Amino acid sequence: SANASQKILETWAQRDSKGLAQSLDEISNLDQRDFAIEALSRSLARRSTDQALDWVESLSDENERANAYQAVYDSTPKGIGAMLQIEGGFPKIGEILPGGALESTSIRAGDLIVESREANGAPQSLYGVDLRNTVDHLRGAPGSEVEITVLRENPDTGELEQHTVNVVRDLLILKGEPRR
User: Fold this and answer.
1) CA 130 to CA 122: how far, in whole Å?
2) Global pTM?
3) What is the per-residue pLDDT across 77-130, written as a single tens digit (0 to 9) for each?
4) Which backbone phi and psi does 120 adopt, to 5 degrees?
5) Where are the domains of the chain?
6) 161/64 Cα distance (integer angstroms)
7) Neighbours of 21 (CB within 10 A)
8) CA 68, 70, 73 angle in degrees (round to 5)?
9) Is pLDDT of 151 > 70?
10) Which CATH superfamily is domain 78-171 in?
């Protein structure tokens, strides 16, 4: 069945993307070839957006290239551009990703996120929320805005200070090997 073929191709793409890419020319069934190209695009995009785009650009067929670009876009994370962890019940900014949406704001690694609020939405407390649900609250379509309120320790006084920042979400370009 088509679903079984898709699952096999997804697994193959994850385990041996080079092997699947080399075998593409041997796949004559167009639907199966499309499934393989999309599976490979998704798998590469999860590892390195740059590598995925390089591979997509190598496809000679315009329709295959368009479908592969869409699969890369769909698989590329979207959000605020931070690695998060939970500390004391609060989501904590562990690392700000280079080129991510937070890089140009006053948010810093170590800040504790107290709440988030969608544009025209109600504030959502993130205290006690598990990491997966926190990430779901902070992810969103590129160009959409989320207001984030953080607590940061003042180095001079030791007091926690509240900071609120509007962040325009973006694609999170994952860097792998350098592009050639």
Assistant:
1) 19
2) 0.71
3) 889 999 999 999 999 999 998 888 999 999 999 999 999 999 888 999 999 999
4) 60, 20
5) 2-75, 78-171
6) 51
7) 16
8) 110
9) yes
10) PDZ domain (2.30.42.10)
